[in-house]
Amino acid sequence: MNVFRRKNNNKVLKRTLMICLVITIGLSPYHVSRATDNPEASILHQLGPITVTAQKQSQDVQDIPNSITVLDDVVIEDARITDMESLSDNVPNLEFYNFGSRRHSLTFMRGIKSLHNAEPAIGYYVDGVNYSKSYMFDFPLFDVERIEILRGPQGTLYGRNTMGGVINIYTRKPDNETAVSFAGSLEDYDTREIKGYLRTPLIENTLFLGIAGLVSASDGYIENDYGTGKDGRYTDGQSGRLQLRYLPNTKWDITLGIDGQQHDDGVFVFRRTERNAFVKKGMFAADRKYHYSHDFEGRSENSYWGSSLNVTHDMEFGRLTSITGYRDYDNDEMIDTDFSPLDMTRMRYVMDEKTFSQEVRLASPEQDHSLQWLTGLSYFHADSENKATTFYRPAMAQNPANPFRPGTGSRLKATKSSNEGMAAFGQATYPLLEKLDLTVGLRYEYERAEMDATLLDTPEGGITTTTIAPTLDNDFSALSPKTSLAWHCNDERMLYATFAGGYRSGGFNVFGDRGTYDEEQSWLYEIGAKTSFFDRRLILNLAGFYTDIEDEQIAQFDADTNQPYISNAGASHRLGLEIEAQAVLLPGLDMSTSFSWIEAEYDSYSDPATGCDYEGNNVFGVPDHTFHVALQYRRPLCAQWDLFSRIELSGVGTRYFDDANTVKDSSYELLNLKLGMESDHLDFYVWANNLLDRHYVLFENVAKGIAEDGEPLTAGISLNYRL
User: What is the mean pLDDT of residues 8-34?
Assistant: First the structure.
């Protein structure tokens, strides 16, 4: 009955929103024609310059010889960018698949994946502080001023684990202006969210306070046909941030930030596909879309907090910047690992990771346009403890795969690791000719890593057997160069060519004789154009790139020990094209669009477990194209109220779920709509994601025959109030 009611509510919302969309489209030309009757209203607004700090100096984004997407606070609010999933919809060649749990979500940038159980390929920074692992990426975005996404290796300025690119998130800083806001939203599946912020001066021109927070909960959209607990992928969490900013004089800017988050989520709501072993044997049927059948409800508890200290000091010969960061991440996860109604195996995964980081850099004065330079030093230290316990339950009593049969027992794998690294880097841009700039940079990085591992086997009612693995240690080092040429044809057009290197740190395989695996290296060759037309009413940027990846880290499987491991087993390339455009079409009517095409293929890679050679195959999980088109209309309506409407169409191309390229997911498109009324102090919106209720698969583990579906049609209302 509950499912039937939910589906009918979705249909009503869908029809209502479709009617609103038709009305909005029908009224838009009428409003535009009225606006153009006013001579002042007929003046088309320009797309203003956007200043970014992507290269750790303030620059106009159109002057940087790199493929960059910038989203300011207005776009973030208008497009409802609230997390990594919605962010990726608005950025070409950035894909994020929120499956399994926050810890296991999969991220690609330019077709290079981040491994949740190893080192990432994407740098993720909040106010200059690095979030060192990909399982730290998938958390709410709130009170954000600007997001800058750099694509391609960023090894020179950012160092290790930035082969795919870098995501920079900047939160709002408090200043002399007092700002207070409260917002709430309700949507399908009993989803509720309340958030707000306060920014105010404590001492005018000197000391400022910023507070922001968020509380959210949702029942989830995937239902367990067997269990009696909560719906799959439920969420219940809260986040908060405190900032103190101190300006003792015009030369100093000191900001202390403290933030924390806590989330309780449902996890691994995988349905069985026709490739599942139980389905093939006829024991169970394949699950329906948006349904699964597990005897145990999984859960994941994440606790995450940290602090940062950002200090800048302006001197005659340059700007000195110091960024100190500390992050503490804890996860406690319990999973049904047989993904069936049988009580066979469960796993508890507990981890605790602490990271300290420090960067100091000196950059040329902003007013010095002849030579722009910066140099710096960075350091980090990370300690991590992981405990993975597999519980062999009653249904495994007679199974040959149970090491404790005929009874049951538990196997605990515990590891302690320590990573410490330091780097020196520098970059300079010099005008060779009047319109030709040369940028060169180099970074040297060194890292020391150690790991201790222990295996504890405990039969039910028996004595624990302990196995201590030899201590593993290794050193990693890399040189990451960068060279760019930028030809400024005129004030509106720039052509550039860039060569850059990046790398991903190596690591350890916990047990077995696989030991360590080495660094993964990438080399980028990129050409591009940044242009504007019609007096900056249209901005059009293009980039073509080729990335060569050597010693690629690939997850493989050892059939003799029945254990997964990572090895430097492959080499591959990425050949791609990116197009981004923004345009002012009419007064109040804006359009933004992006398109990316990519060829991601293995140049060499064979799987020893299957004996298959995957040379020439597509890299799993990488769509051959993506696109995003947004049309947004804002105009005065009556009295103090403005009309707002936004429609978005996003598309994801075909992709393979396995390296053998036997299972392919078809391309799909998602339509989003947002309509609202806005005033100086109050905004009201109604919106829907996946308006046409398109079914798509987030991810499938082909070997196990388990998959998770993407979010269906969801609709809701939002209310924002500002003092």
Answer: 40
Using one digit for the tens of pLDDT, what is the confidence trace for 49-59? 788 888 888 88
**Superfamily for the 2-457+471-722 domain:** TonB-dependent receptor, beta-barrel domain (2.40.170.20)
Amino acid, single-letter form, for residue 173: K
**CA distance to 308, 440, 573, per residue, from 528 (Å):** 35, 17, 19
Distance (Å, rounded) from C-alpha 162 to C-alpha 123? Answer: 5
Distance CA 201, CA 534 (A): 41
- Contact of 574 with 108, CB cutoff 8 Å: no
Let me know: does 401 contact 409? Beta carbons within 8 Å.
Answer: no
Phi and psi at 91, nearest 5°, equal -130, 125
**By three-state DSSP, how is residue 413 classified?**
strand
Classify strands 106-109 and 223-224 as parallel, antiparallel or unpaired. Answer: unpaired
Closest C-alpha to 549, from 121, 137, 132, 131 = 121
Q: For residue 49, is the peptide bond before it cis, meaning its omega torsion is within 30 degrees of 0?
A: no
Q: 667: burial class by Cβ within 10 Å (0-12, 13-18, 19+)?
A: middle
Maximum CA extent, the chain: 87
The answer to whether residues 537 and 526 touch, using CB atoms and an 8 Å cutoff, is no
pLDDT over threshold 90, residue 544:
yes
The answer to whether the beta carbons of residues 92 and 579 sit under 8 Å apart is yes
Q: Where are the domains of the chain?
A: 2-457+471-722
Closest to 101 measured CA to CA, from 272, 259, 232, 275 = 232
Residue-level pLDDT at 6: 41
Q: Which residues on adjacent β-strands are paired with residue 443?
A: 425, 480
Residues 6+ apart with CB under 8 A from 312: 252, 253, 319, 320, 321, 322
DSSP SS3 for 274: coil
Distance, CA of 572 to CA of 542 (rounded, Å): 23
Rg of the Cα atoms in the chain: 26
- Which residues contact residue 59 at a Cβ distance below 8 angstroms, ignoring those fewer than 6 apart? 51, 52, 53
DSSP E strands in 46-120: the ranges are 51-52, 59-60, 68-72, 94-97, 106-109, 112-113
CA distance 677 to 686: 9
Pick the more confident residue, 414 or 230.
414
Sheet bearing 129-130, strands edge to edge = 68-72, 144-151, 165-171, 122-126, 129-130
Q: How far apart are CA 620 and CA 658, in angstroms?
A: 5
Instruction: Report the residue count for the chain.
Output: 723
Residue ranges of E strands in 535-640: 538-558, 563-586, 589-604, 606-607, 612-613, 625-638
Q: Tokens standing for 693?
A: 């209720």
Which residues is 69 bridged to in the sheet? 149
Sign of the dihedral through C-alpha 436, 595, 168, 441: negative
Q: Give pTM, 2 decimals.
A: 0.92
- Kind and range of the H or E run holding 300: strand 299-315
Is the torsion defined by CA of 481, 485, 488, 493 positive or negative? negative
